[in-house]
Design a protein that fits this description.
This protein has 357 residues and is of the alpha+beta class. The chain folds into three domains: 78 residues, Roll (PH-domain like), CATH 2.30.29; 34 residues; 219 residues, no CATH class. It is built from 13 helices and 15 strands. Strand 12 and strand 13 form a beta hairpin. Helix 2 crosses helix 3. The longest helix has 33 residues. It is elongated.
Length: 357
């Protein structure tokens, strides 16, 4: 006999009741009278959740509930092995804590290793059209809310583009050499900001302050090659896929181009704050340094321009102006690495092998 409470169909009024099971037949007593007699196969028994109240639904829609879970398990053999397993875990705190720890560690491993690997795979699967659409939307947002028209003379702009096309563009490992240089004025209040960034499509944006800081062509080339490295390795696309994971999956599966809008907004923010990971920066640096050795450019120029741009970071009370390298990780280590490549350059080497590479 299983003690519990009975609730009429579509009613929250409870009545003291008990369930008597004899073979394949059950008898439901409400008070002292038999309310219903039928086959136990007509009953729908809810899965067990630790020792919480169990619900049994009758054919007429009424409900019998009880805390006597062990008795229910004894009489009803329809409970799944999974349900019993889960109950076992829930009933033992030790197992529950272990299970929770496994879930936490598994989730952590996914976000640290799985998601980056997955985003890299997606980044290389997505068609070139996706890069173009994201980049066009991102450029539109930046021009509308952040950038102003460049004050760099058209003659100087054309000179920089021509040099890039003739000397640096051939160093790209991409089949599609869709790199284009853009110039924009970027300010924080009245302070002009030195910045350079690359969109997934290969559009590279140079701010006026960055151009002004470059005292030699090699300094500018070193940063341009670094940005080319981000495009070649599809870093910005991987970065935005990780930050907008659900939108990226939706776009890939059903081709929802509306998701590109959210991705473009996110990419705008990430690019402005230069939030690339250490691995991405190292890969882009390696591409730049290797390319500089091949083209006869001293990698020391990279450390030189980095130091100049870092020096332009202005701290005013608690407000810090954005600069290209201010939020890049391990700036000193990257400068040191550039100088090590410079030693290879001075030895006329076309390839430099470092232990940290």
């Amino acid at each position: 006999m299983i003690q519990g409470k009975w609730y009429p169909p579509q009613s929250s009024t409870e009545h003291k009741a008990h369930l008597d099971i004899q073979g394949d037949t059950f008898y439901l007593y409400v008070g002292e009278s038999v309310y219903l007699q039928d086959s136990i196969d007509t009953l729908k028994v809810a899965d067990r959740l630790a020792n919480t109240q169990r619900r049994i639904i009758l054919e007429d829609g009424s409900v019998f509930s009880t805390y006597e879970n062990d008795s229910i398990d004894t009489h009803f053999k329809t409970n799944s092995k999974v349900s019993h397993f889960m109950h076992g875990l829930e009933s033992k705190l030790g197992f529950a804590l272990v299970f929770l720890l496994v879930v936490i560690l598994g989730s952590g491993a996914f976000f640290k290793y799985g998601l980056p690997a997955f985003s890299k795979k997606i980044a290389y699967i997505l068609p070139e059209k996706t890069n173009t659409l994201i980049s066009e939307n991102t450029m539109e947002i930046l021009d509308k809310y952040i950038f102003k028209e460049s004050k760099i003379s058209l003659i100087q702009q054309e000179s920089i583009r021509k040099h890039f096309d003739e000397k640096l563009l051939p160093l790209s490992t991409l089949k599609e050499n869709n790199f284009t240089i853009h110039f924009r004025l970027f300010t924080d209040g009245n302070v002009s900001i030195a910045n350079a960034m690359a969109l997934p499509s290969g559009d590279i944006i140079l701010t006026d302050k960055f151009v002004q800081l470059c005292q030699t062509q090699d300094e500018m080339d070193s940063v341009l090659l670094h940005e080319m490295g981000h495009v070649v390795h599809r870093h910005s696309l991987q970065m935005i896929i990780q930050s907008t994971f659900v939108s990226a999956i939706t776009m890939m599966v059903i081709g929802d181009t509306n998701a590109l809008g959210d991705m473009s907004v996110g990419l705008s923010t990430l690019l402005l704050s230069s939030q690339y990971s250490q691995d991405f920066e190292t890969q882009a640096d390696t591409f730049a340094f290797d390319s500089m050795l091949l083209s006869g450019i001293d990698p020391h120029s990279f450390s030189s321009i980095m130091q100049k741009i870092t020096a332009t970071t202005i701290v005013k009370e608690n407000e810090k102006a954005l600069s290209y390298f201010s939020s890049h990780p391990s700036t000193n280590l990257r400068i040191d690495r550039a100088n090590k490549y410079s030693q290879c350059y001075k030895q006329s080497l076309k390839k430099c092998v470092l232990e940290d590479k």
